[in-house]
Specification:
- This protein is α+β, with helices and mostly antiparallel strands.
- It has a single domain, classed as Outer membrane efflux proteins (OEP) (Up-down Bundle).
- The chain has ten helices and eight strands.
- The protein has a four-stranded antiparallel β-sheet, with no helix packed on it. A two-stranded parallel ribbon has the order 1-6. Strands 3-4 form a two-stranded antiparallel ribbon.
- α5 packs antiparallel against α10 and α8 runs antiparallel to α9.
- The radius of gyration is 39 Å and the shape is elongated.
Amino acid sequence: MHRIIVSGALALLCLPPASAAGDLASPAAARPSVTLQALVRSTLASHESMERARSAIRRADADVRLTASALLPRLDLNGTYTRYQNQVAFEFSPGQSFVLQPLADWNYSADLKQTLFYGLRDWRARDVARVERETALIERTTTAADLALRVSQSFFDAVAAEQRLAVRRTALKQALSQLRVAKRRFQVGELTSADVARWTARASAEEQEVVTSQGALELAQRRLARLAGLDELGPLAPPTTVPAPEGTTAELERRALMERPEMLVLEKRFRAARLMIKVEKGAWLPELDAHAQYYAQRADFPSRDWMSVSLTLRVPIYDGGVAAARVARAKEDLIDVEVMRREMDKAIRDQVESATISHRTAAAVLEAAEKRRTAAREAYRQVERAYAVGEATVTDLLTATTELTDAKTAVVIAHWQRELQAIALRHAVGQAPVPGVALPTPGGDAGNAEDRPERPTPDEPAMRSEP
């Protein structure tokens, strides 16, 4: 049994450092650090949801032009060439005739049409299209804010995984160091083979944790790179402390109801729904069109060319109830938007309350975790000193080591949870989730270069903040 334990310990000690701690960061060390801001910009420039949002704006622009075209006159040129089997002529007297139908006939006309009054439906349809374009611009801002929050979550998951791996590597080094000490003390008779076995098991457990942490870090980094549209990531640069919005819960709720893009979208949709009621009511109003035409032909009858101007008035009398049904449906659409607005009001209030409580809780958890880490360090220091002089057992030192490792891991998780909750609170209130990254504004132009930013290279200066 003695030989089995010693050989197992030697096998662990002979592992190369790269195998025990992982060789994940060595190629990335030469690459520049990747900041959260750079990842958010890259995501906003490359993600499919942003491309759909930009497409919706361009589609809304096309709808505005389409509805505006109904207000403009239409000019058509028409021409016809006809060849008949026989020529038809009317003879007045011998040698004098009047051609009614030439053998080869042609005619052309220029027609100018203008709608003078269409129940104001065309004007209001244009107004609806403009409101829809404003809605598309605001929804682009909403999409960008949601993406920034998603990137932040993935970023902090990767940063936490990276720092958990560092904690586990440190714990593995400590376990291997204590294993070497236990072997030497066993050789001089100060410890038993069971004590060596405990440290061997501890070192094996820490090696398993390192391997597991490496896998979690690799998965988190790949997910983050895929979200940002990058092939691979360099070393992550944790951001500085994210400032959370200040104020009471009630003040933050009022602010969110004024600044959240979702509320602005519902306001625009409410306007559009009211305009649609007026559009449908326009079917009950009369319609007036003007038509000017110049006509020319080869035949002499009735004349070779002429001009005409006509006005056409149509007064709807009975349409089988179609207009009334459309007005009723438009009114129900307005009621539906009003209900959605009340639901959104409640949802935003709930989000702000939840984010405020979560941020306050995360800050308290971080404070408690830091106190726990300080106490665990002191306990480990004292137990290790007592163990060195034989006043503490191997079990006591193993327990203190486990508690210190768990306390360090808890601080890592709590630190980045607090930062993530601050970002979530900024998102809930309506601020830009990530400081330093401006979101697309509703006043932007879908065709401008700013709406299609170049994908940035993540080579910005690192902003580090050690937990």
